[in-house]
Amino acid sequence: MQHTAPASILSVHNSASSRAGILGEVLESTCACRMHKYQFNRLSQISYNQVAALHKRIEEIVEVAAMCGVNVICFQEAWTMPFAFCTREKLPWTEFAESAEDGLTTRFCQKLAKKHNMVVVSPILERDDVHGGTLWNTAVVISNSGSVLGKSRKNHIPRIGDFNESTYYMEGNTGHPVFQTQFGRIAVNICFGRHHPLNWLMYSLNGAEIIFNPSATTGELSESLWPIEARNAAIANHCFTCAINRVGTEYYVNAFTSGDGGKAHHDLGYFYGSSYVAAPDGSRTPGLSRTQDGLLVAEVDLNFCRQVGDKWSFKMTGRYEMYAEELMKAVQLNFAPNIIKE
User: Fold this and answer.
1) E strands within the chain?
2) What is the mean predicted confidence (pLDDT) over 68-95?
3) Is the Cβ–Cβ distance between 275 and 283 less than 8 Å?
4) d(CA 28, CA 273)
5) CATH number of the domain residue 93 falls in
6) Is residue 278 within 8 Å of 234, Cβ to Cβ?
7) How many structural domains comprise the chain?
8) Catalytic positions, please?
9) What are 298-333's pLDDT values in tens digits?
10) For residue 327, what is the DSSP state?
């Protein structure tokens, strides 16, 4: 992996001058020997060495971010592991799961956060031992003081193509939390949640000024949608959005099928990177590379959320009470669509 210089400076202005940024596109080329064995918060020696190497790489990138003055950084979805949910194999992939509160990766990120006075958003595969070892796709939010501020679980799980994630973990039960940090109010809309406008809306209604969208998505499936969705969400919700993807191709020894009659294959497809930040007025940064990992740092002014909101008044004119009433009817078993016929 190569060091990639920051694309631009991101400074978040709230009541005081501060900075925020996102980390995207960590290149992972996966094979059978690339297994981060994790079980009961303990690692085998081989897997520990592999995880330590990945942590070291991330530490180097965070060091670059710190030199740029970054105060909020977000990694890609499930950044500590290959995105192996396409395989439908439970082992060894479920062994990547770890505690969101005190797992190895969370403790590692706590040290980085405290060292650099930086809020760290760390999306991982979570094992919830308090509730029977349930697995979740979770973003851990760590304060710049080094304490775990909280977590946000993935609300929407895809059931399309090779994205067989429902085989591994459950839909999130944390709702739409917004985290008040020293550098602004942030939320985390994980991957497939970006396809659901109401998901973005609820984070916004809860007060989010910046919504991160850590993802792992491939070209043939979603690249035509990628430049549009987070940008549209920024406009519709008067907030900044940060779309983050991984990059490269992950190869698996055991071939798998998509359930569509096609031939068995060894990879999920090409993760096309192209991370970007969008503003409430629809402007956006250039995307990061499609072919290598990188750090995107972009400058934003949180006052802009209110200024654009005052101009367009999408929330003031939202008529949420009307939609709440109609949605309440729509989820009932006896719902009848309001179709007027001749």
Assistant:
1) 11-13, 17-19, 22-24, 72-74, 119-128, 134-142, 148-153, 179-181, 184-188, 210-214, 240-244, 247-256, 265-272, 276-278, 294-296, 300-301
2) 92
3) no
4) 12
5) 3.60.110.10
6) yes
7) 1
8) 77, 154, 191
9) 889 999 999 999 999 999 999 999 999 999 999 999
10) H
The pLDDT tens digits of the residues spanning 132-186 come to: 999 999 999 999 999 999 999 999 999 888 988 999 999 999 999 999 999 999 9
Q: Which amino acid is at 181?
A: T
**DSSP class of 127:** E
Domain that holds residue 163: 11-330
Closest alpha carbon to 98 in 75, 119, 76, 123:
123
Is residue 149 domain-resident? yes
pLDDT-derived band of residue 47, with 50, 70 and 90 as boundaries?
low
Which two three-digit tokens encode residue 135?
Answer: 């697995």
Please report which confidence band the pLDDT of residue 204 belongs to, taking 50, 70 and 90 as the band edges. Answer: very high
Which residues are paired to 12 by β-bridges?
A: 18, 300
Please choose, from the candidates 242, 247, 241, the residue with its C-alpha nearest in 3D space to the C-alpha of residue 273. Answer: 247
Residue 1 lies in a domain: no
Alpha-carbon span 327 to 315, nearest angstrom: 18
The SS3 of residue 163 is: strand
Of the CA atoms within 13 Å of residue 195, those in its CB half-sphere come to 16
262: which DSSP letter?
P
Between β-strands 11-13 and 300-301, what pairing exists: parallel, antiparallel or unpaired?
parallel
Q: Are the CB atoms for 274 and 245 separated by under 8 Å?
A: yes
Q: What are phi and psi of 304, to 5 degrees?
A: -65, -30
Is there a domain that residue 127 lies in? yes
How far does CA 132 lie from the centroid of its chain? 25
137 belongs to a structural domain:
yes
> Token digits for 53?
């190497």
Strand partners, 137: 125
